[in-house]
Amino acid sequence: MARSGLLILTQPLSHLKSLIPQVVKEASESVSGTLYICLQPALQDRHVTQDSLLQPVLSTQEMQMLIRDFYMSGSKVCHTLDIRVLLSHICPNLSTFQPVAYSLKKKMSVLLSDSVALQDVWNDDKISLVDVLQTVFKNISPDIQFQLLNTNFSQKVTSSQTSLSVLRTFPNVVVGGTFDYLHAGHKLLLNECCLLCDQKLTVGITDGDRNKKKVLWELIEPYADREKEVVRFVTEVKPGIIMEPVKIFDAFGPTKTDPNLDCIVVSQETKEGAKMVNEERLKLGFSQLEVVVIDLIDDVCHTDDEESKVSSSSIRKRLLGTLLRPLPYRPNIPKTPYRIGVSGGIASGKSNVCSELEKFGAKIINCDLLGHKAYVKGTDAYHAIIKEFGHSVLDDNKEINRRLLGSVVFNDKSKLTTLNSIVWPAIQQLAEEEIEFHRKTGATVVVLEAAVLIEAGWDSMVHEIWATFVPREEAIRRVVERNGLSETEAEKRIDSQISNVERIEKSNVVICSLWEYEVTRRQVQKAWSLLQDRIKPATQNKL
Ligand SMILES: CC(=O)SCCNC(=O)CCNC(=O)[C@H](O)C(C)(C)COP(=O)(O)OP(=O)(O)OC[C@H]1O[C@@H](n2cnc3c(N)ncnc32)[C@H](O)[C@@H]1OP(=O)(O)O
């Protein structure tokens, strides 16, 4: 199976239409990652040269529908396939158009085609063909394999009413979105923009508070990564146009500042936004934008609690419980038992996650309880706390009153730092002793439940970090309800810890406890089962 491949289709467009699902299915059996699609009907009766591969092809409404079908089918037939339909040579005017060669980023190691003529050229002179392909597309692997599609293109085509009229294109096209985890819906949207644009495409990419209204916004990719993917997509499929990414913080973005825009491309979901944009432009005395609406792509694998369309929020939900980033190399800690640190903001559901993990067989070390132990009467930490905070933090039995101590330290960051410097080393020592105890009993996985594990720098104590989180507003609500604190006090406690985003950035696995227990349980189950694959002895992995 190739990671990336190039599919050159030479059939007349009318032949292709009903066969797209079959073609995509066949291609997905040979390519697992990116599939670049080049529609080149002109190649049928011409030699394979740089010119014939880039021969201009008319952008008709039929072509537009066909391209949409590729994305729709791709998402149905193989939702993991990254389809990119190449458009540099598709144009509204054959006589004046100068296509630009592609510069595709992924190394292509399989060439798929419906063309027997191309197969003949391959058999006759593979080296020259690879040279030509390299010039037109770049990144063709020297070891590229050729595969003639099995799809029967000679079968009778069910005639459907297709419009052959030439597509109207525009000098300046604009589109907007979050473009998080660039998916088939985004690709269709951007592909459509590229098809309609013949000079400059402005892509507004949301950032800041606007993103915070979205489900699991904490998992939205950083702006720079989203911009990079959008730019890569556009420059790959249509290298001849100017591509301008712009950060946007509202529903208007550049449509409010750029009078020269001509066309806006929106999805069925955002078409109301286009209406608002035109109303605003009218007020500003700017020209009205032509509005092009594209359909949403159905998500064939969505579950009951996910949207029925392909969506970034479903993708983010599916990330919960999975390994988000590679594991750190920890040669300093013994391989067994495998150590997981479960950290998480106040009232984020750590204990619930840990009790689920316990049911699976993990040994839980509750660092909060170790904290109680660390400063019982008579310990070094006990005396150090009295020295720093005075006798007023003691109860009638001369034990440290945690509630009183809490009200002092959560109102003064420097005092919290002092407390931490006293108790963290003591808790850490006790935690190591418990791990050793579990090692002797043959435990395979120990879980260090520690709210501020990352803040304490204990990441180096564990093989991987899992984080639990809920949105800030939900954490406040829970703390007010659970701990009987005021909203302000709850906020102070939350602010004494790193933010969800900072914690997630440093964690390998993330669990969100915002919904019913069952939803959290499923995330933990997924995380546990993926963990088993990771920690299987190497020999078992090979089986
Ligand atoms: C590295 C670790 O995570 S060890 C485990 C956490 N313990 C510590 O850091 C030791 C210092 N903390 C303490 O001694 C106590 O938490 C006190 C005295 C500050 C407060 O005690 P209590 O009023 O009984 O509150 P409690 O211990 O239940 O903590 C309340 C919340 O404060 C947060 N919290 C605890 N310690 C800290 C800290 N050092 N910094 C920031 N937040 C903290 C926790 O998130 C906890 O909520 P959670 O149980 O939902 O996660």
UniProtKB/TrEMBL annotation:
<dbReference type="GO" id="GO:0015937">
    <property type="term" value="P:coenzyme A biosynthetic process"/>
</dbReference>
<dbReference type="GO" id="GO:0004595">
    <property type="term" value="F:pantetheine-phosphate adenylyltransferase activity"/>
</dbReference>
<dbReference type="InterPro" id="IPR027417">
    <property type="entry name" value="P-loop_NTPase"/>
</dbReference>
<keyword id="KW-0511">Multifunctional enzyme</keyword>
<dbReference type="Pfam" id="PF01467">
    <property type="entry name" value="CTP_transf_like"/>
</dbReference>
<keyword id="KW-0067">ATP-binding</keyword>
<keyword id="KW-0963">Cytoplasm</keyword>
<dbReference type="GO" id="GO:0005759">
    <property type="term" value="C:mitochondrial matrix"/>
</dbReference>
<protein>
    <recommendedName>
        <fullName>Bifunctional coenzyme A synthase</fullName>
        <ecNumber>2.7.1.24</ecNumber>
        <ecNumber>2.7.7.3</ecNumber>
    </recommendedName>
</protein>
<keyword id="KW-0496">Mitochondrion</keyword>
<dbReference type="InterPro" id="IPR001977">
    <property type="entry name" value="Depp_CoAkinase"/>
</dbReference>
<comment type="pathway">
    <text>Cofactor biosynthesis; coenzyme A biosynthesis; CoA from (R)-pantothenate: step 5/5.</text>
</comment>
<keyword id="KW-0597">Phosphoprotein</keyword>
<dbReference type="GO" id="GO:0005524">
    <property type="term" value="F:ATP binding"/>
</dbReference>
<dbReference type="GO" id="GO:0004140">
    <property type="term" value="F:dephospho-CoA kinase activity"/>
</dbReference>
<comment type="similarity">
    <text>In the central section; belongs to the eukaryotic CoaD family.</text>
</comment>
<feature type="domain" description="Cytidyltransferase-like">
    <location>
        <begin position="174"/>
        <end position="318"/>
    </location>
</feature>
<dbReference type="InterPro" id="IPR014729">
    <property type="entry name" value="Rossmann-like_a/b/a_fold"/>
</dbReference>
<keyword id="KW-0548">Nucleotidyltransferase</keyword>
<comment type="pathway">
    <text>Cofactor biosynthesis; coenzyme A biosynthesis; CoA from (R)-pantothenate: step 4/5.</text>
</comment>
<dbReference type="InterPro" id="IPR004821">
    <property type="entry name" value="Cyt_trans-like"/>
</dbReference>
<comment type="function">
    <text>Bifunctional enzyme that catalyzes the fourth and fifth sequential steps of CoA biosynthetic pathway. The fourth reaction is catalyzed by the phosphopantetheine adenylyltransferase, coded by the coaD domain; the fifth reaction is catalyzed by the dephospho-CoA kinase, coded by the coaE domain. May act as a point of CoA biosynthesis regulation.</text>
</comment>
<keyword id="KW-0547">Nucleotide-binding</keyword>
<dbReference type="Pfam" id="PF01121">
    <property type="entry name" value="CoaE"/>
</dbReference>
<keyword id="KW-0808">Transferase</keyword>
<keyword id="KW-0418">Kinase</keyword>
<comment type="subunit">
    <text>Monomer.</text>
</comment>
